[in-house]
């Protein structure tokens, strides 16, 4: 079913708005997937904060023009589904990677992160990026380590003195 001009303009505006704020994009060929599989993919995308849309390549090129994903435009060939990570840079890559494991008909073709065009082989690298929560936990751990070492260093002379006095007391108690 062909889209009317107004529908095309609305679709381009919607995808452009998402692309302007997205962290990364993954394009994957979906030829051969059943409707139930696409529905499952869309459900997983919603749960993981990924904007997933099947868009004609000419409309997708117009939508991503002027965004950091403009480099992807020339690589859009064939029936593709675009997955934009809204908050977590690796979310779209994780979604496509995990879904492609169970459904070999979903084939990633383009990955873009930070305005750089990456190959489909780089999907694993992007998918392995930590989530926001994991990155915060790592940062917090890195900040706590020096403080913990400082506290132990400051307390060590006192602890050493206590151990020496206890050993001396035990020695005096043993001789008496």
Automatic annotation (TrEMBL):
Q: Name one Pfam family in it.
A: Ribosomal_L10
Q: Quote a single Gene Ontology cellular component term.
A: ribosome
Return the SUPFAM superfamilies for the record.
Answer: Ribosomal protein L10-like
Query: Which Gene3D superfamilies does UniProt cross-reference here?
Result: 3.30.70.1730, 6.10.250.290
Q: Which UniProt keywords apply?
A: Ribonucleoprotein, Ribosomal protein, RNA-binding, rRNA-binding
Q: Which InterPro entries match?
A: Ribosomal_uL10, Ribosomal_uL10-like_sf, Ribosomal_uL10_bac, Ribosomal_uL10_bac_type
Q: How does it assemble?
A: Part of the ribosomal stalk of the 50S ribosomal subunit. The N-terminus interacts with L11 and the large rRNA to form the base of the stalk. The C-terminus forms an elongated spine to which L12 dimers bind in a sequential fashion forming a multimeric L10(L12)X complex.
Q: Which family does it belong to?
A: Belongs to the universal ribosomal protein uL10 family.
Q: What does this protein do?
A: Forms part of the ribosomal stalk, playing a central role in the interaction of the ribosome with GTP-bound translation factors.
Q: What is this protein called?
A: Large ribosomal subunit protein uL10
